[in-house]
Design goal:
The structure holds two protein chains of two kinds.
Chain A lengths: L4 H9 E4 L5 E4 L2 E4 L5 H10 L9 E4 L16 H16 L3 E3 L9 H7 L8 E4 L13 E4 L2 H10 L1 E4 L3 E8 L8 H12 L7 E6 L1 H4 L3 H9 L8 E3 L4 H7 L8 H11 L12 E6 L6 E3 L7 E3 L10 H7 L14 E4 L7 H11 L9 E4 L4 H9 L2 H8 L2 E2 L20 E4 L14 E4 L2 H10 L10
Parallel strand pairs in A: 3-4, 3-6, 4-5, 6-7, 9-10, 9-12, 10-11, 15-16, 15-18, 16-17, 18-19
Antiparallel strand pairs in A: 1-2, 2-8, 13-14
Helix pairs in contact in A: 2-5, 6-8, 12-14, 12-15
Chain B lengths: L6 E4 L1 E4 L6 H4 L19 H4 L21 E4 L11 H8 L4 E4 L4 H8 L4 E4 L2 H13 L5 E4 L4 E4 L2 E4 L4 H9 L3 H6 L2 H10 L4
Classes of the chains: A alpha/beta, B alpha/beta.
Chain lengths: ~450, ~200
């Protein structure tokens, strides 16, 4: 019987299925960070049990770290205690930690792929909803809660019900100025912030195949923003070329063996999906959000829909029927697990080279990892940003989530390459406009929402 | 945390909004604790309090006529971040049941793992509950896990829950204890498993 990509991986990881209940799913890789792990470690201690497979866990500090002066102690006491708890817990349980000061430190969903820990065919979890990012490699990757983090630490397994399956095909060539971020913002705007709840999504089609791994990660990353349990893309030569030679990638004969298995990972002809959607790439324009959930997105050239929830509009200080283009912004944030990889920084640098930021904006560029930061410096991208008046900060989740020191002040508008525009997400009463790195870059130069197509 | 749940009969607090994300339930800046306790104080923090810490009078949780163990909310409740702190905050604030017409997947799992019962009802029944509770805050809602029914003003609807999880909730069983009992099977699986 033909199988989907999801089913091929799922079936290889199910140990057993409980009657009228979930399956016991084996987990290959577990990423942890400082925010959603301390209570899980405490839970294990309370039960008097050890971490079952510490070598299958990788830890980093990202959510709560400052992005300036990382060599100094973290100023805020509670943040410092939480980051320190991760240091102590990982040491005690013999778990690899890429913490502050380590050359591999960074956002968990940036470092996993970058180090070659993330590989096709794996089951991957993390106490973080954007774990769906790793699905770009043809893995089943999804976010879990802290009780589940504890479960995986204790048994390397989770109890999971098999989700329904959806395939989203994006066909054709992308328009000028349109990036993978625009594709996913377009998809979410089409099917809404809850349109994929209960589903695991496979992205396919020629437009998806044409994307780099960074582009594919951006798409899978935001699967959760339409409610999906996860997102995935079948691995191909682009995937294999990206992985080959990375720190923890298979080497030598092991590589050949793995590669042969990875090449079998695709949805068979005739495999059944519960839902299938096809989108023409030609219909996608540079996108931006205007509201308070990621489904509230429009083309930069468009108008804010009439009939938009008034509560949302009041929060955003925007009017139904008005154009979004020309709206003044105060902050530009380029970073987060959605768009902080070297390709994103290169794209921004190529556009801003020789240009200067507008006087009314503050521009924060936050690389996704130490390795991204070092690569940017090596390529001279840091100098391009400095000349443009942008501030290149240090790796972390930064202003994506209003948790660490990097917050957008109340009432201010931030055009952001992150993934959520919820009320207060970037700080109490901050107003977020989600967009691609290119659309953010042009806003940094003009000081307002602008259409990148008029500048390239 | 109560370690089993069956019947809950209580007045309810209606938060009549859709797409309530976990950043609203508990903003990230309150996730710095390393324990599971005490998050209830910051439940719906930015809807509930002004920046100076004074209560916002128009928010339902600050309205003394509404109280109870049941939280009622619009569809797509608990979307966004996977933070289990959202379930902890709701439970810590004294709720045992959340009723909505649609829950986000991760939140639903987190709630179940904390003996906070997510009850999914039809949109029509949800609107009946809102209407009943909003017109009379003393309206009692009865939730019975054993029979999988929810009743308000004599009208009932059944709700879905898988049999495994239902047994866990009724008896106070925990997934980790169950998985630990499978250790030999897990180890046997590992010996033949290679991630492709």
């Amino acid at each position: 019987m033909p199988k989907t990509l999801f089913e091929k991986i799922w079936d290889r990881h199910v140990i057993k299925t409980i009657d009228d209940g979930p399956s016991v799913l084996y987990i290959d890789r577990h990423f942890i960070h400082e925010v959603t792990s301390p209570q899980a470690f405490k839970g294990l201690e309370k039960r008097g049990i050890e971490v079952f497979r510490p070598k299958q866990i990788v830890a980093t500090a990202d959510h709560n770290v400052p992005t300036l002066d990382q060599h100094l102690p973290i100023k805020e006491e509670l943040s410092r205690i939480q980051v320190q708890a991760l240091v102590e817990n990982t040491k005690k349980h013999d778990i690899e930690l890429y913490g502050l000061g380590h050359p591999y430190q960074g956002i968990v969903h940036v470092i996993g792929p970058e180090l070659g820990v993330t590989q096709p065919g794996m089951t991957i979890v993390c106490g973080d909803s954007h774990t769906s990012t790793h699905g770009a490699f043809g893995a089943i990757a999804f976010g879990i809660g802290t009780s589940e983090v504890e479960m995986v630490m204790a048994t390397q397994c989770l109890l999971q019900s098999k989700p329904r399956l959806m395939r989203i095909n994006v066909e054709g060539a992308l328009n000028k100025g349109v990036t993978s971020k625009d594709i996913i913002l377009y998809i979410i705007a089409q099917i809404s912030a809850s349109g994929a709840t209960g589903y695991f999504v496979e992205y396919a089609g020629s437009a998806i195949r044409s994307l780099s791994m960074e582009g594919r990660m951006t798409i899978c990353n935001m699967s959760i923003e339409m409610g999906a349990r996860g997102g995935m893309i079948a691995p191909d030569q682009t995937t294999f070329d990206y992985i080959k030679g990375r720190e923890f990638a298979p080497k030598g004969t092991e590589w050949e063996k793995k590669l042969a298995g990875w090449k079998e990972l695709y949805s068979d002809e005739g495999a059944k999906f519960d839902k299938e959607i096809t989108i023409a790439a030609a219909d996608i324009e540079p996108m931006i959000t205007y509201g308070t959930n990621p489904g509230m997105g429009i083309a930069v050239s468009g108008q804010i829909p009439t009939g938009t929830d008034p509560k949302s509009l009041a929060y955003m200080g925007l009017e139904a029927g008005a154009a979004i283009k020309g709206k003044k912004v105060d902050y530009v944030f380029i970073g987060s697990c959605t768009n902080s990889r070297i390709e994103d920084l290169r794209l921004v640098a190529s556009f801003v080279k020789g240009r200067k930021k507008a006087d009314n904006v503050e521009v924060w560029i936050v690389p996704g990892s130490k390795q991204v930061e070092q690569q940017a410096i090596k390529e001279g991208i840091d100098k391009v940003f400095a000349e443009a008046g942008f501030l290149l900060r240090q790796p972390g989740c930064s202003a994506c989530l209003g948790m660490n020191e990097d917050k957008i002040p109340a009432g201010k508008y931030c055009i952001s390459t992150s993934n959520r525009n919820f009320e207060g997400r970037q700080g109490p009463n901050a107003r977020t406009l989600l967009a691609s790195p290119l659309t953010a870059a042009v806003a940094a130069i003009t000081g307002e929402v602008a259409d990148i197509r008029e500048f390239i | 945390m109560s370690k089993s749940i069956n019947k809950v009969s209580s007045t309810a607090v209606p938060v009549h909004l859709e797409n309530i994300d976990t950043d609203q339930i508990i903003p990230a800046r309150f996730l710095k604790a390393t324990t599971r306790e005490g998050f209830g104080d910051n439940l719906f923090r930015d809807w509930r309090y002004n920046s100076d810490g004074s209560p916002k009078k128009d928010f339902i949780l600050n309205n003394p006529t509404y109280s109870g163990k049941i939280l009622v909310a619009g569809k797509n409740f608990g979307c966004g971040s996977s933070r289990e702190h959202a379930a902890w905050a709701i439970k810590d604030a004294g709720f045992d049941v959340v009723v909505s017409s649609f829950f986000a997947d991760i939140f639903k799992n987190n709630a179940l793992n904390n003996f906070l019962l997510p009850v999914t009802v039809s949109e029509a029944f949800l609107q009946q509950i809102f209407a009943a509770v909003e017109s009379d805050p003393k309206t009692t809602i009865a939730v019975d896990l054993e029979s999988q029914t929810i009743t308000v003003n004599g009208k009932s609807e059944s709700f879905e829950i898988n049999n495994y999880k239902k047994t866990c909730l009724l008896n106070g069983y925990d997934d980790i204890d169950f998985l630990l009992s499978l250790k030999p099977e897990i180890e046997a699986f590992e010996r033949k498993h290679a991630a492709i």
